[in-house]
Specification:
The complex is a heterodimer of chains A (288) and B (373).
Chain A: H1 2-30, H2 37-53, H3 59-82, H4 91-112, E1 117-118, E2 126-129, E3 132-135, H5 136-158, H6 160-170, H7 172-177, H8 182-208, E4 210-211, H9 215-230, H10 235-255, H11 261-275
Helix pairs in contact in A: 1-5, 1-8, 1-9, 1-10, 2-3, 2-4, 2-8, 2-9, 3-8, 5-6, 5-8, 6-8, 9-10, 9-11, 10-11
Chain B: H1 2-19, E1 29-35, H2 42-61, E2 70-76, H3 81-93, E3 97-102, H4 106-119, E4 122-125, E5 140-142, H5 147-161, E6 166-172, H6 175-190, E7 194-201, H7 209-216, E8 222-224, H8 229-242, E9 248-250, H9 258-264, E10 272-275, H10 284-297, H11 303-322, H12 326-334, E11 339-341, E12 344-346, E13 359-364, E14 367-370
Parallel strand pairs in B: 1-2, 1-3, 3-4, 4-5, 6-7, 6-8, 8-9
Antiparallel strand pairs in B: 10-13, 11-12, 13-14
The chains are: A mainly alpha (288), B alpha/beta (373).
Amino acid sequence: MLVPQLINGLTQGSLYALIAIGFVIIFGTMNLVTFAHGEVYMVGAFVGAFALTLWQLPWFVALLLGMAAAWSLGFLIEKVAFRPLRTAGHMPPLLITIGLSIMLKDLAVILFGAENRPVPSVYDQTIRVVGVQISVLQLVILGLAGLLIVVLQFLIQGTKIGRAMRATAQDHEAAYAMGVNVNRIFSLAFALASALGGAAGVMIGIYYNAVFPIMGATAGLKGFAACILGGLTSIPGAILGGLIIGVVENLTVQFLASGYRDVVAFLVMVLVLVLRPQGLLGRKLRTV
Amino acid sequence: MKTRVLIPLLFALMLALAAAAPAWSGEPIHLGLSAPLTGNFAEYGQNWQKAITLALEWINAAGGVGGRPVVIVAEDSKSDPKDSAAIAQKFTADSRIVAEIGDFSSTASMAAQPIYDQAGMVQLSPTTSHPKWAPGSVWSFGIVGTQAGEGPFMARYAVEKLLKKRIAVLHINNDWGIAAKDNFVQAAKELGAQILAVEAYFETDKDFTAVLTKLRGLKPELLYVPSFYNEMALMSKQREKLGWTDVAIMGPGSLYSPKLLEIGGSSVNGLYTSAVFFPNDPRPEVQKFVKGFEAKYRASPNMFAALAYDAVNLLTDTIRKVGTDRKAIRDELAKTKNWPGVTGKITFTERRDVIKDYRHLVIRDGRFALFDK
């Protein structure tokens, strides 16, 4: 049962990684933390669920719609909560995102109801690989998460916009002096991070067959933990952090009991931070 | 959320006003209802409310109780212990309310219990089945039967009827789930079954893949899951996705809801459960209720509607005998013997709970059917 548990863990971990990368992008470019990221993920999940159930769209269209909705919401949050307070320091935007998070959660309860909304499953089949039964959906999720990460890396490392983002991350005043439209880069970074969160939301909805208003709370926390574990500003670190948390959780259920899954996952995070305060792949330099 | 509570309330008020058109000889008699009208248990609470509305319509059309109409004051607890306790404060402080129906889960009912106990108001729960609940206060009454009865029944179903000997248990980690697990496990062991593992999940859990993968490794013949339709539906779908099909799934009567079929789809086919109420029961009181419910709501009543229907009728019958004094209602209610409910005869034991007759059910082709083998 070790191999199936590892696959369960990697699948879940890859989704934590997508959320964690969002935190890294936002923290990396703007040096700010958002606590509304979990709710952006929740909104993406709901839009995906509606696309699948009410509008009967194929799953990849639902995924794109969920990402688009999260992108727009992220864009809006940056405009409303971050831009006017750019010079106000760390605290005000942080508090605003906490407020936004509560507001979005309660709004979802009012609009959609507090109950679980069932989401139809896709790829219900399993395949056998060297004697181990593997869910096709898990492979699809792993593949999609991987694909999104590759596309993101290309965007950041291989395009002009990516170069502008990296420059802004290193020193936004210098980047501004060199003619980079820093405001646009901030908007873009926030929207991009949100879209990844939205993608994770849609996939988790399909994976667990349910979406619900408070789903963002734990997911946001786990994603943030993965981001810290990985070193706050490192995308490979966030991926590693997400996968470690996912795998540790599932192995805890296997070898201890399901009640301990979060206890052990966060214990690992605390231990890593005690032994290596900068995180697994963190550096002193701020880079995306 | 507010409007969801208000609408049923207004509805009840309107009904009361409409019904009040004939000359009533006194003020309305108020009953409190503390139930999950929204949230994850909403379907259960809404079924209660439908059944109670129907019962009161019939009672008031037939002249009410002692020439007075009966009205219900409904509050949404979401089956959350914080809310059920606050509602208990509100109800007991309201001198118009003579007795309370609710709450849904054992945890919510037990959180409110000391408040009803201190104030001296009957707390009659249609569904609370924790063995320690009804004995906990002389004011508490349970009519669903306890896990002390259902646990051994399910164990016999699994071991003697289905001949499954290797059993794993996955239960919801709350008061009811623990009682359900303990009673089943003890009885199954006495019948010679082997309990391979006992795992718990939390009410908020949505990911069951890890724990299912773990249990699968133990190769049980039957998985006993004291849970509710929401988690069971998700669990079944995730189990199907993992490709684990060579196991029988069984859970107590808490699963008996059309929502399980709706959300679970094909993944819940073959699931074994139980019920104290079955709509095809030929007894006249059952058929009157089923026909009336179907005519009014265009849907079949489920066990939870039936239990609430019994609760409100039992209370109004008691009030008819002794009037509206809170203490007199309690004393008379405790004497109830062979009262003919749609969920079977109700006779309170000295612990103020009842012994039920259960039916063996199985899901076949997307519907609940009697198991006959």
